[in-house]
Amino acid sequence: MSLILAIETSNPGAGEGATGIALGRLDSSLEVIACKPLQRGGDDELMPAIAQIVSEAGAQPNDLSRVGVSIGPGGFTGVRIAVAATKMICEATGAQCVGVPSSHVVARRVSHDGRPFAVALSSKRESAHLTVFDADGVAHDAGAIRHAQDLAALGIARLISDDHLPESLRDQAGRISISIQHPIFDPVACLELTLVGPTVDSIALAPFYPREPEAVTRWREIHPN
Description:
Elements: E1 3-8, E2 20-26, E3 30-37, H1 46-56, E4 64-70, H2 76-93, E5 96-100, H3 102-108, E6 117-124, E7 127-133, E8 144-147, E9 158-160, H4 167-175, E10 179-181, H5 187-196, H6 214-222
Parallel strand pairs: 1-4, 4-5, 6-9, 9-10
Antiparallel strand pairs: 1-2, 2-3, 6-7, 7-8
Helix pairs in contact: 3-5
């Protein structure tokens, strides 16, 4: 039995159903065996949930051939724990490791209307990390921290963002007729991308943080030298 596991816990603050794990089997196509939601803030729940979903499939951990994880941008703790769990599982089982950008997970569930869109994550103060996708859902680049004045040049029709989007970006989107849509962090979307994504050495797998952690910033302020 060859199984694929995906972990999506990057943005627990995005609302109900924003975190979970999915298990699939690859035959001639990907078959989704199970999808299990996790409670917000339930970091201690992750490994028991993985053990349960594999056991209920009648499988063993060594049956995992590939493990994918949503690597961010997202919450510092949720991303870090998911990445650490993925590294551990891959090292223990020999499964291939795939890091999936969280913006791509969201983009996977955006309905296509023939126009480009952007996924906004890691909102803070008056900026957010925006990744632009074309009409077919293909990313233009790895994304960047952008402000309200940058929106017009992106050529997008929709902005996919949670409720944390800064008011300046929200207001500018309204002024230039960019609609705002709530993101879907679907573990099955992460599973689909795990199947096609490039593999990496599990030891080298790392979270994607587009900003320096607040604790590090404050440490630098307190200890400038």
